[in-house]
Amino acid sequence: MITINEHYLKLQASYLFSDIAKRVAAFQEQNPEIEIIKLGIGDVTRPLPRACIDAFHKAVEEMASEASFRGYGPEQGYAFLREAIAANDFQARGADIQADEIFVSDGAKCDTGNIQELFSQDIKIAIPDPVYPVYLDTNVMAGRTGAYVDGRYQGIVYLDSTKENNFVPALPREKVDLIYLCFPNNPTGSTISTAELKTWVDYAREHQALILFDAAYEIFIRDQSLPHTIYEIEGAKEVAIEFRSYSKSAGFTGTRCAYTVIPKECTAYDRNGGRQPLHSLWNRRHCTKFNGVSYPVQRAAEAVYSEEGKTQTRELADYYLHNAASVRRAMQDLGFFFVGGENSPYVWINGGRDSWDFFDMLLNKAGVVCTPGAGFGRCGNGYIRISAFNSHEKVEKAMKRLKDALS
Amino acid sequence: MITINEHYLKLQASYLFSDIAKRVAAFQEQNPEIEIIKLGIGDVTRPLPRACIDAFHKAVEEMASEASFRGYGPEQGYAFLREAIAANDFQARGADIQADEIFVSDGAKCDTGNIQELFSQDIKIAIPDPVYPVYLDTNVMAGRTGAYVDGRYQGIVYLDSTKENNFVPALPREKVDLIYLCFPNNPTGSTISTAELKTWVDYAREHQALILFDAAYEIFIRDQSLPHTIYEIEGAKEVAIEFRSYSKSAGFTGTRCAYTVIPKECTAYDRNGGRQPLHSLWNRRHCTKFNGVSYPVQRAAEAVYSEEGKTQTRELADYYLHNAASVRRAMQDLGFFFVGGENSPYVWINGGRDSWDFFDMLLNKAGVVCTPGAGFGRCGNGYIRISAFNSHEKVEKAMKRLKDALS
């Protein structure tokens, strides 16, 4: 008899975005004349940079003639892209990462979801709260948690990110083996300083733990003192894997390209305590279960590193940061506590009430859609996330409406 | 301490293609004047159909302006593609598959590799020999096998595909729960009749087993009597998942698009014997660990179903089948036993000697590269695979050289 992986049955159905959609639809039906402004989802709205479009077209045309046609590429990505990544995203910042330590993929969601396959079943896992749900759900599916009780999975060490710790979790009291961190953070928009990140790297080195560092929002960092990559921290190459994406940096959410960095000296342990390089394990997984990213997409991603591409992606991030600044000003004027929006497209706002009540108030009084923080974990209750991914005009209009309605 | 998934250590390093590359390089060094002709790997060489190129360009340009830009798409694929697939690949053949039973992905390798996550650890798995190694390796990684002993993993039921059974394995004597089948077959090029496929569907229904049917080479079927999809068989929707790909049908090996069909009534069982729909389990996996296929790539795939696209993909398959016929004629003339090449781009040839000896003979006497059958499993010993993926000119030249050298 073919039997299922019963761990899937532990997963909680997420009604977050369907609940939002239902409330929005009901409001629109009662108020057909109001133009609803959506600042909820984390999806970009601006077109691809022209440098990427031009490179994309050129590569598509290469696929049209036998002489320049490309079949299967290297599973790890083409050298032209891996070399551009290593030089621009790492070596230019003093982080000694080589091209063959980069694995190009079709998304950071896939990579952050699949990476847990490399580890044994009985490791102790630390996951922030609030959090991007993929880290948690993929470990539930793999059977590394117990049941879901009182809003949390048993067996997981939750790292609370709260106002008290400025949304950078403290080191766990119990010993953990695998640590998920994301900075600039989704959903809070908070950042981590070099000194704070060093405490995590030191913890990992001391406890033979591994850090999975999700830096998908790196492009939004403007504070010169903040680390752009975990490999700016001494010793991180032995204990950290980093995930990056072109989704937010170049508008690739619908185009699909990302990458993962696994330094050659980054290791985990076998049952005899022997060091096992994670680079070769991930390479084996990548070659067995993945067949590389579409060639024209890799050429479009490479264009991010051209002179025009660098200027255009910087402008793209600045466009959204301009919106985030508008949101921050409005929240300041309204007297709400908030964090984020300076080095991040997200602003995390405390409304002094239940997340959903806050959500409903914004929708009903101003026709503005946000995301209730409770959808990201227990520590998100009381908060909402406002996203900067929309046009200047719509964000300005939304903030004016909020100020008129709430002040 | 962060510990690894020790099952990865059971994996056998595959030296097949690197061994081939070494022997080819050595031969070339000794014979610099000889133009080596490669009929080894299963990668296409002809450009993308013009209909796909045009649709690809159009969609790239849509990404260049805000009004037509697309961000995150549905993880399952856009409706335009899923509907075209359901109508053309299934309903047109009398197979009642609906658009929402199709999951678009970036490759059949990914899907055939990932699907095993849905099942419990202790199922009994049947895998053909010779075989595409992904089916086997992904189950090794997941811990569903024992050690590798005498060329085979313990705990797997191997389905021998031999001359005696015309390369269509017989039903297993012991009861199995999960069955991998691939027709037209890689590497043998053999096909399965409707009656033979029905015996497998009946077996699965009787034993509450599930069939994973890999139909990546469906486009090459020319024999009117052969089934194009397993859903042409009555009752298959309850017990079979089918994998398809544009890699070979439209030259997408470097462009990346494929799909998996999971009918709504296809189920596995929970530990209480309750039926659990695999559609919802896979949907959960797909939404958690995957973020959809690149939008322009989906538009290029959709163009396969336009009138021009249908004509051009048919011509593309015919081009390679013309080569396969040349290979068959040459092998006939040389007096070798062979199978495949009529409804498949692969010809599977018995040389009456060890696979690697046969490989060396073709390389040294004719400068032609093939793939030694032993690389696909124990039953492949004595055989080589010759691929039709090359130009008419090169295949003709290779066959002439073989005839001159060996007859």
From TrEMBL, chains A, B:
GO terms for molecular function: L,L-diaminopimelate aminotransferase activity; pyridoxal phosphate binding. Gene3D superfamilies: Aspartate Aminotransferase, domain 1, Type I PLP-dependent aspartate aminotransferase-like (Major domain). Residues 35-402 form the Aminotransferase class I/classII large domain. Pfam families: Aminotran_1_2. Its cofactor is pyridoxal 5'-phosphate. It is an enzyme of class 2 (transferase). GO terms for biological process: lysine biosynthetic process via diaminopimelate. InterPro entries: Aminotransferase_I/II_large, DapL/ALD1, PyrdxlP-dep_Trfase, PyrdxlP-dep_Trfase_major, PyrdxlP-dep_Trfase_small. Its EC number is 2.6.1.83. Pathway: Amino-acid biosynthesis; L-lysine biosynthesis via DAP pathway; LL-2,6-diaminopimelate from (S)-tetrahydrodipicolinate (aminotransferase route): step 1/1. It catalyses: (2S,6S)-2,6-diaminopimelate + 2-oxoglutarate = (S)-2,3,4,5-tetrahydrodipicolinate + L-glutamate + H2O + H(+). SUPFAM superfamilies: PLP-dependent transferases (SSF53383). Keywords: Aminotransferase, Pyridoxal phosphate, Transferase. PANTHER family: AMINOTRANSFERASE (PTHR43144). This is LL-diaminopimelate aminotransferase. It comes from Desulfoprunum benzoelyticum.
